[in-house]
Amino acid sequence: STMVSRLVPKVNSKQGEAPCRERHMVLLSPVGKLEICGCETGLHEIKLPKMSVLPSGKEGSVAPCVVHEGAEKMTEPLRQCLAWLSAYFCEPAQTESLPVPAFHHPLLQQDSFTSHVLWTLMRDVKFGEAVSYKQLADLAGNGRAARAVGGAMRSNPIPIIIPCHRVIRSSGQSGNYGGGNLMKEWLLAHEKL
Predict the structure, then answer these.
(1) Bridge partners of 36?
(2) What NCBIfam families does the annotation carry (predicted)?
């Protein structure tokens, strides 16, 4: 019976909290429309478009990010997300000095291997770096869990900011990606990887 009580999610302690007032924002980016949602507390999710073809555009010319919807009701985390993503696409070096928005997705608040892997990835793997699933498992403290790392990448609610596109197969192949392989290849090329 001790097991059962441990499996109850910790979220119950927060019942007094008002439910999130979720805000949505659509950002037109060089890789298409990014749907971003979050509340006053933090980001919930970034949804990537499925790319069927790579965006056309001259090499090296980067269109700035434009808020397509939701500009009038942006919360602080959404504003920070906008600033961060705009920098990422246009002047990547700036992302190092910008605040990363707070996250408010249940997955990232749980004490689980998945959340630990995602936080580790965001903290340790910088722009222009790549790791293999195995290396990321090592960084997260369990070198045998490369397959679980793959699962964690698939459930990443905040792609690009939590850079699961930087996790590639040890063979050097890019591996799968929630936003599709074209998107992953574009992001890796953008980072000159």
Answers:
(1) 25, 46
(2) ogt (TIGR00589)
